[in-house]
Amino acid sequence: MRIKCAAIRFNGKIYEGESHFKIGSRMVKDGICNKFPGGDDQGFVTECGMYVRREPALIIAIKAGQVEAGKTFQPNKLFSEDLRRV
Question: Of 48, 58, 63, 59, whose CA–CA distance to 4 is shortest?
Answer without folding.
Answer: 48
